[in-house]
Design brief:
mainly alpha, 28 helices, disordered C terminus, 3 domains, four-stranded mixed sheet, single chain
Length: about 700
């Protein structure tokens, strides 16, 4: 199996979406045919006095057409309603559907505090904003899920059983697994799948409603016998026909659920292997996720959920949310196959645990037997326990191929091979960075109003700039700026660049709680601070762009299969500004341009010239980047490879180059892990990005679009 990177996995997700839509269309067609047959049978029973209709007569009748139209309307309406619900609320709607409770980032509960720390570490290390966290308090099974339409509104839901029974390494493995689903676009497919199948299952719910209505009506009217006596056999026959219709609709609904399970299984099984492998790649600790899987296998509740909507999200869970699923309808691979893919030693360990558990249950049963039988069993148990663990492990072809199989599945949950793996070293760096944050600043990151002030404080270069803020915000914002400088000052009144984007990402869960008007006020005040010195620095642009990207949903332009070739001018504009932003001489910039264009369009493009500095402002850059945000995964990979070739052409990445590269990748929904300290060169303290600044004019006056 060939190695797959981030972009190949996203291409695969796109193909799965097409298959999903095709399967959904077939399912809808099948349901329409089944409902028509049900109505035909009911019509024969109800209108028998007028003579029976043949099936051919029914198919060509207007009634069949209206039945098909109404059935399609019900399915489409149910799906559209669920899509609109999920689109407005993001992943939070799914979490609340499951009875989830949002976690306060400043919670004092030790288990919840540990979860928040783990999620924030992985978020910083992977270059994504932390998702909102929801606890399913009434669920004792070990499970979790990620939901949302894009990383900016993603959530992770986790059961109380997982929170209480998993240790930190196991919890980290589960969270890394869910981050892989977020980064690779799996959660968007999951939510679409949930919404589409809602319409099909609605048919069964309608059948149940018919039955309840008929029985309640029969109860109020004295039952079917009184109807037959009072109104004649016609009404009784009609009542029986309606009950039959309700029963048939319920059966069709069950069939729809079965078809939905097949579709969900086809989409989700392979992605679970990939997400497991990404979690191993990310944490560099296979025992963490393997331990979580083994606990699920050995726990009484397993991963099953008690919520009424457990079936709807069965394809979204870390493990199976409902029982009885196997073979064609199983949304997750068997635990043993997942453990074998992570490492054969974990499968051996799990089998040992299974045998130990069986011996313990057998011992408990034998304690209730006569003494002689107990002694005999004890001797047998002793003999079994003396065996070496490896003597009971029977190799098979899958075990022999496991190292290569795992290597093929280890797909980074960030930018593939382009920017390095966000492995354990970056998790360690993220943990160290979190430890640096003073308690007052950490608390401010998790309070909506204080988080908004902190965003202003990041751009507050001079005390008198505070006059650009609302009057009541000046004092608290200055206090936050002073704390920032005391902790991460660069000695020239600025901040160390490595802290800016992590602080913005950590603040995103709190900023998402702001109302739309407050979000607009935040951006408008940021614009006033940016204009205060008449220049627009790269780091100012990146902070503003990321806030707009994460706080305001935007429609992505569809570029289609032509990719970069159709928008080569836009790609040239972005790469030109990257070259101009480099603090080096013209010869080095020329070399950067040549390497970038070779990566983008081949040798023939390397002879071209970059767009002149005066014709490549941040306004044109923003417009070009907005168009390129619709690139398909393979084209996106080529474009980002060109960007990376540009900024690394001189052997190092400056702080502002790293910020600009991460911003480009974020707008393209390709999170890049932040560079470790020492991987970037600091900004020149004597100037504020001389070659990368300009008079902003009206560039910062673009109002955020309504979500």
């Amino acid at each position: 199996m060939a190695r797959k990177d981030f972009f190949e996995r996203q291409d695969e997700a796109r193909r799965q979406t097409a298959l999903l839509i095709g399967g959904f269309i077939l399912a809808v067609a099948g349901v329409i045919v089944a409902v028509n047959l049900a109505v035909w049978l009911v019509a024969i029973l109800t209108f028998a006095d007028n003579g029976p209709w043949t099936l051919r007569e029914w198919v060509t009748s207007p009634a069949a057409g209206w039945t098909a139209l109404i059935t399609f309307g019900v399915i489409a309406g149910g799906s559209v309603v669920r899509v609109s619900q999920l689109a407005r609320g993001g992943g939070g709607r799914v979490a609340m559907l499951m009875g989830g409770r949002i976690v306060d980032p400043e919670t004092s509960d030790p288990a919840e505090r540990r979860l928040v720390n783990v999620v924030e570490e992985i978020a910083i290390a992977s270059g994504m904003p932390p998702p909102d966290l929801y606890i399913l308090d009434h669920e004792q099974g070990i499970n979790a899920f990620a939901a949302g339409m894009q990383p900016g509104n993603a959530v992770i839901g986790i059961t109380r059983g997982a929170l209480e029974q998993l240790d930190r390494d196991e919890l980290q493995g589960v969270v890394a697994h869910e981050f892989s689903h977020i980064a690779n676009g799996d959660m968007r497919i999951n939510v679409h799948l949930l919404a589409l199948l809602a319409g099909i299952t609605l048919i069964g719910e309608m059948g149940g409603s018919v039955w309840r209505a008929m029985f309640m009506g029969a109860g109020r009217g004295g039952g079917m016998r009184s109807r037959r006596q009072g109104r004649g056999g016609g009404d009784a026959r009609a009542a029986i026909a309606m009950l039959l219709l309700g029963l048939l609709l319920i059966i069709i609904g069950w069939i729809g659920v079965f078809i939905g399970r097949i579709i969900k299984a086809a989409v989700s099984r392979h992605r679970e292997f990939l997400a497991d492998a990404a979690a191993v790649q990310f944490t560099r600790n296979p025992r963490g996720i393997a331990g979580a899987l083994m606990k699920i296998g050995n726990q009484r509740h397993g991963g099953k959920l008690a919520a009424s909507h457990a079936e709807e999200i069965s394809h979204m869970g870390f493990s199976r949310t409902v029982g009885g699923l196997s073979g064609l309808t199983a949304t997750h691979p068997p635990l043993k196959e997942r453990l074998r893919a992570i490492g054969p030693q974990f499968l051996v360990e799990y089998r040992q645990q299974e045998r130990a558990s069986k011996r313990e249950r057998r011992r408990e049963r034998d304690q209730r037997k006569p003494q002689g039988s107990e002694a005999q069993t004890s001797q047998g148990a002793s003999s079994t326990g003396s065996l070496s663990p490896l003597t009971e492990h029977v190799p098979d072809p899958l075990d022999a191929d496991t190292p290569g199989q795992v290597a093929a599945l280890l797909s980074i949950a960030a930018i593939g091979a382009l920017a390095g793996n966000p492995g354990a070293n970056r998790l360690t760096a993220a943990r160290s960075l979190l430890a640096e944050i003073p308690t007052p600043l950490y608390q401010a990151l998790h309070q909506p109003e204080d988080a908004r002030r902190l965003m202003w404080a990041l751009l507050l270069h001079q005390p008198d700039y505070a006059d650009q803020l609302p009057a009541a915000e000046s004092g608290p914002t200055l206090a936050l700026r002073e704390r920032l400088e005391n902790t991460w000052g660069d000695g020239s009144g600025g901040l160390q660049p490595h802290i800016r984007l992590p602080l913005l990402e950590l603040a995103m869960p709190a900023l998402r709680q702001l109302e739309q008007d407050d979000r607009r006020t935040l951006v408008e005040s940021l614009d006033n601070l940016i204009r205060a010195d008449g220049r627009l620095a790269i780091h100012e642009y990146t902070l503003r762009t990321l806030l707009l990207h994460y706080l305001f949903e935007r429609d992505r332009p569809g570029i289609g299969p032509g990719g970069v070739k159709r928008h080569l001018d836009e790609a040239r504009c972005v790469l030109s500004l990257l070259c101009h932003a480099m603090k080096t001489d013209d010869e080095a910039r020329r070399d950067a341009w040549d390497k970038a264009m070779r990566e983008l369009a081949g040798e023939q493009a390397a002879a071209s010239e970059p767009t002149p500095r005066e014709a490549c402002s941040l306004r044109e850059f923003s417009q070009a980047l907005e168009k390129l945000s619709g690139l398909q995964p393979r084209s996106r990979k080529r474009f980002l490879a060109a960007c990376l070739a540009c900024v690394t052409s001189d052997g190092h990445i400056s702080a502002q180059e790293a910020e600009l590269l991460r911003t480009i990748a974020a707008v393209l929904d390709t999170p890049i892990p932040p560079p470790e300290r020492g991987e970037t060169t600091p900004e020149d303290p004597g100037t504020r990005a001389q070659d990368a600044t300009e008079t902003p004019g009206d560039e910062t006056q673009d109002a955020p679009r309504e979500p």
